[in-house]
Structures are given as structure tokens and as C-alpha cells.
Amino acid sequence: LGGPDPLDYVSMYRNLGNPALNVPEHWHYISFGLSDLYGDNRVHEFTGTDGPSGFGFELTFRLKRETGESAPPTWPAELMQGLARYVFQSENTFCSGDHVSWHSPLDNSESRIQHMLLTEDPQMQPVQTPFGVVTFLQIVGVCTEELHAAQQWNGQGILELLRTVPVAGGPWLITDMRRGETIFEIDPHLQERVDKGIETDGSNLSGVSAKCAWDDLSRPPEDDEDSRSICIGTQPRRLSGKDTEQIRETLRRGLEINSKPVLPPINSQRQNGLNHDRAPSRKDSLESESSAAIIPHELIRTRQLESVHLKFNQESGALIPLCLRGRLLHGRHFTYKSITGDTAITFVSTGVEGAFATEEHPYAAHGPWLQILLTEEFVERMLEDLEDLNSPEEFKLPKEYSWPEKKLKVSILPDAVFDNPLH
């Protein structure tokens, strides 16, 4: 199927599956255009044959073929176009284990399959092309409950569970839009495996794009100079290139794998899109491969703040307990990156290296990037106070939480507040 940029084409194939492996017949979709098809800088900058081709990946999707269906539905191609537009516009790439919150049936029906996980395609191996390396990431449709489990634990763990349930994907993770039950309804024992995994591993979700903002309450509201996160007058404050890459890398992938709760986090390095164990480290790190350390931009000084006010929409606020329990209590960090500007909020634990927030100065800002260092004792208290965030059906907006002695305030606000740039 041809289409406008960013994808030149989405090819559709009838895949006979593998009866010996209990893989049913299905439709197989493959994108073309996220990788470099031309090598002439027409769409992607050509950086050589050894690095990634374009964004380094193409998307695939496997859809169960319905009885009597003679032609593949075209909606998966439109879905892939939407994901490609996000990649081109944000320059954020996808990796195996990532999740995409879609909040709508993927085929615009009444289906429970409303979100996506990403994994390596079981048949399409990485390819070395004249313009670089291309890997193939398969979209896997999941229910809301499965998405939440992936956020609270990790995407790879949920993908492994989906592989064990034939009607939920099976070994090749084929999406069935007519699936009416979650894997936890099909097999209640799987929830126990997720709960144990969260307790043992924590969460590998290191950041999300979100509707969020923060204010420096240390200064009078009328003091615009270096005082708040979103705007200086009407001009948005910009992050330095290094900071932007740092945050983008945090959102792109988790930075550690933790095998036991009593052990410190183990950093990971990426090779061909996969995580491989490396020597254990006693501290998590905000460093990334493309940004070896946080080096403040010479024109933006790091400021220590006395009091801060954090603002989130309901969806973003609902992830705060995950951030605290699944990340900070495991010695890790978690970043909210605003979808409406350069604002970023990173929560860090006392064991995170490379942070500019410290125990002495737990609130620190570098331009519009705020870091908040929380001790384990305070995290436990916050989890108790924020318990109602786990029951969104009983939630009424706006909602405010305050810890006066810590000079910290958190507000959960309607989406409309964040749609107004002058909020």
C-alpha cells in the first residue's frame, strides 16, 4: 500500500504460519521508509554502512486472518503510518519492549485491543544494507490491563506471557482483534507472575511523554527571570542539545536490568537492539551512550530550588506510584517529558549517578529540566498519601497533595489546563 511520507510503503503478505508450532495463518504487514531507502540524504542523513539505516528499524504487524477473508484489512497500514509520523516528528525511536498507549481500539471497532507493545519480529532478522543496519520491530496489540502490567513491570516480561497464551498471541505474537479476554482473565496465575516480577525486578519503564509542568515556588510569581519551567514571557525556554538527547535516551529505553531485589541495579548496554548484562553497578545512572554525562550548557546554569509545585494530568499522575514503587525504591530514576514543550521532570533516588539534584539540594533545575531527589523514607510516605491514584474511577479533578515540611506540592489537573500554553 503506497502512502504519503513518512512511510513510502507498507507491504502486506499472507503468511501461512507454522502448524507445527501452533502458529495460525495470518496477515503480515511490513513498513518501508523508517530506514534509509535511498542513501542520498533525501529523507535520512546517510551516516555510513556500519551504523543504523535511517532510524534503524522498520515496523511489522501480524493480524489473525479471519475465516473467508481474501484480502488483508488496510487499517494496520494506517496505524503504522501514525506511528511513523510520531517517529519522524519527535525523532524518538522505538525499541523492543517499548509500549505505546493508544487509548482506542486499533481498528476503530469495539475491540479491547487498544494499546501496543513492540518486540523483535520472529521471522525478520536484522539486515545489513548498503545504507546501514535495519532491524524489524513487530507491533503487538494488547488490552489496557496488559499495558498497565507492562508499565508496572516491563514489556519483555508481558510479551513472554503473551507467547504462552495461544489466543493472546502465541509464539509469533499474532494480534487477534476479536480477543475478548485479557491474559489474566484467561489464566489468573499469570497475575501472580507479574506481581512477583514487579517485587523482584521493579519497573523497566524509565520515562514517558506526558502532560506535565512545574513551578518554582521559591520565587514570587511575577519574577520571570529563571523562575519557572514553561515560558519566559511568551518564548519557551529551550533545553541544550545534550540535555535533550539525555532525556530522549531516557524515554527511549530503560537503563538497567535488576535481577534480585537485594542487589543493586545492573546497567545494560544495547547491541543490535537487545539488552545484555554488564558488570553490576552500585548505582543507577542518568548517563546514556550518546551522552556520557550531564554537562551543563554554558548558558544555562543549574539552580537549587527551595520549593516546587508539580502538575500532571490524570493519566500522567496515575503513573506516579509506579515511578515511586517500581523505580525509585529500586534505586532508579523516572522522567516525565512534556508533550507540549521542553519541560521535563526527573525523579531520582539517592543511588542515581549523574544527577544534579542532591540530598542537600533535592530540587534542582537546569533550564526547564527539573530533577527531584527523594529519599526512600519519603517515597514510602508519598506512596501512602497517593494511594487514591490507584483508583481512577473514584478520582475527581482537580486534586492536590502537599508535603509542607518538604516544600513539595503535586496537583492532578484536567487535560484542558495543559492544552492552554499560558496555564
Give a quick precis of the structure:
With 423 residues, the chain is of the alpha+beta class. Helix content is 21%, strand content 28%.
Commentary on this structure:
- With 423 residues, this protein is of the alpha+beta class.
- The chain has 2 domains: 9-201, no CATH class; 207-223 and 242-256 and 301-417, Gyrase A, domain 2.
- The protein has helices spanning 75-90, 144-152, 155-163, 183-186, 189-201, 241-252, 314-317, 320-327, 376-385, 415-419, and strands at residues 9-15, 26-32, 52-64, 99-101, 115-120, 127-129, 132-142, 207-210, 212-216, 231-232, 235-236, 256-257, 266-271, 274-277, 284-285, 302-304, 308-313, 333-338, 344-348, 352-353, 363-366, 369-373, 399-403, 408-413.
- The strands form 6 sheets. Strands 1, 2, 3, 4, 5, 6 and 7 form a 7-stranded mixed β-sheet that branches. A 6-stranded mixed β-sheet has the order 8-18-19-22-21-16, sandwiched between helices.
- The two termini are 43 Å apart.
- Residues 223-237, 253-283 and 287-299 have low confidence and may be disordered.
